[in-house]
Amino acid sequence: MREDFLWGGATAANQCEGGFRAAGRGMALVDVIPYGKNRMPVMEGRMDYRDLPEDTWYPGREAIDMYGHYKEDIALFAEMGFKCYRFSFSWSRIFPTGEEEQPNEEGLRFYDGIIDELLRYKIEPVVTLCHFDIPLHLVDKYGSWKNRKVIDFYLNYCDAVFRHFQGRVRYWITFNEINMLMHLPFMGAGIRFEKGERELQVKYQAAHNELTASAYAVKLAHEISPEFKVGCMLAAGSVYPYSCRPEDVWESIRRDRETYFFIDVQARGAYPAYARKLLRQEGIQLEMGPWDTKILREHTVDFISLSYYNSRCVRADGQGEASGGNVFASAKNPYLECSDWGWPIDPLGLRITLNALYDRYQKPLFIVENGLGALDELDSRGKIEDDYRIDYLGTHIKAMMDAMEEDGVDLMGYTPWGCVDLISATTGEMSKRYGFIYVDRDNQGNGTLNRIRKKSFYWYKEVIASNGEIIKQTV
Ligand code: BGP
Fold this sequence. Notes:
This protein has a single domain, classed as TIM Barrel (Alpha-Beta Barrel). The model has no long low-confidence stretch (mean pLDDT 97). The chain contains 16 helices and 14 strands. It starts with 5 loop residues before the first strand and ends with a helix. A hairpin with a 6-residue loop joins strand 9 (322-323) and strand 10. 40% of the residues lie in helices and 12% in strands. It has an 8-stranded parallel barrel with strand order 1-2-3-4-5-7-11-12, surrounded by 4 helices. A two-stranded parallel sheet has the order 6-8. It has a two-stranded antiparallel sheet with strand order 9-10. The protein is of the alpha/beta class.
């Protein structure tokens, strides 16, 4: 293993910070994503949050109150030996409506606190600029990423934080799981469909605006500091054909391209032929600025980051049992076990995915999310023996190391998701836990918020201390 490998953990403001009204923060998209049966319709952009009943519970507003606990949490990350920590800025904490010209100083000060604390422990910050987190004002007034104007607001925000944090932050990610926009458009990109709108037209326009914003952000970052490394981020997971029937194989290629599309643009700098065809066939007209093509071509990303939870599987005939999984459902793969939430578990799929991405792009990769959402129970001694999580992570780390050492994939680091328990993005539950650190809080928001080290905490500490050697001996 390379000596500079970035072992760490990942979170996002929208699922852990809370403090939704603190220090001048403006309302954000996450603040209006409810718990319960209305969550999906809102996340899909089919229900307007303004129509939600008054007694609705919004778990993201308080989350695990990392706003008030970050020092304690970072001390625990340091105790595990983290080399880096991936987290996101809440855009509306820095630009409360998104339209201000100058940043909210108190918002910047909050992130100064986090970053200085990390650097004190020699933990490298990796910052996601937008992780399902958009000022609500931009959603309601402009229609979020449907509107080109939002590119300017985003760049104004990027400009402020690049300048403010230069010298302290080196790694930036422009958008979390940019392809989420196609599946959960409101959660992914603040997109709500109005009557009469063509969904595909709206989605591809929003995608174009985000891709352009991302390329401009790369340009800006490189102008501000030659030290900056800027990455894109994909919800990854290779799509397998259900059988060797050519129709199934073809369907798997088609589905893979739905995700590759974004990275093809961000890493290779142009719309691929299959995407140009699709736009034409679907009659989609993109509103483009005069410089977009040039900006996309000249400002590709420095690295490709990805989340990997599971592989996917498809059948051309659409028959058979379905399976859950990150971002979208697919056909049930009979060879794989599933998590408590029905997501397939496929460590070799991680090696397959890493190889596919590296073959295609030849740019450094960074796994910025991976993990097992599971039910954790405190035992009679108040401890959590999460061997299932150790198994999941151990086998995935082994697959990742094989990709690096056997296959030559260039991988910068590994930050498992939800290193401290946080709110689930898809379900809003607290009980879907990923962490090495347990947080005492339930789905209704009750609990002390106390942090407790799980068994996996001590295990991951050893993994990092041995730079992965113990994985080779034990998995
Ligand atoms: C990814 C998101 C994360 C995270 C993770 C796990 O899609 O980037 O924000 O939540 O998935 O998903 P969930 O929380 O639904 O289990």
